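Worked example

This section walks through a single chain of length 43. The input is the sequence exactly as stored; nothing has been trimmed or padded.
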Amino acid sequence: MMKHENHMRTIYSKDKGWFWFGLTVLIQLLFIIVSYLIINLSL
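Given that input, the structure is written out below as tokens.
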């Protein structure tokens, strides 16, 4: 029973890690798009 519980916990933490990874990638993409738009609009 304990083994199964630990397995579930690792899956949960893994999903959490992927969530944060996706979030940081999205934020970086957003910054790139915003800076790209600013550069194009200012020219």
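What to look for: The mean pLDDT is 85.
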